[in-house]
Design brief:
Organism: Parasponia andersonii
InterPro entries: PHF5
Pfam families: PHF5
Low-confidence stretches: 21-27, 31-36
GO biological process, one term: mRNA splicing, via spliceosome
Protein name: PHF5-like
Largest sheet: 2 strands, antiparallel
């Protein structure tokens, strides 16, 4: 997915003190939505993907586009 959509990246924040919890109350898509623990399938656990951090997808494209138009609206020059 990263090859075709370079503006989509994974969050990768570590869960912190509460082991197994995901950041910002997002789940990994394998269990229901909410503040539940992060459960991973057996294959992901065997490949140790559950230690990589939050699997939530972050879209940088819209933030960069918004910044471009905000800077253009107020007349800021490019760096």
């Amino acid at each position: 997915m990263a090859k075709h959509h370079p503006d989509l990246i994974m969050c990768r924040k570590q869960p912190g003190i509460a082991i197994g919890r995901l950041c910002e109350n997002k789940c990994d898509g394998k269990v229901g939505v909410g503040i539940s623990d992060a459960y991973y399938c057996e294959e992901c656990t065997q490949q140790e993907k559950d230690r990589d951090g939050c699997p939530k997808i972050v879209n940088l494209g819209s933030a960069k586009t918004d910044l471009f138009y905000e800077r253009k609206k107020y007349g800021f020059k490019e760096r």
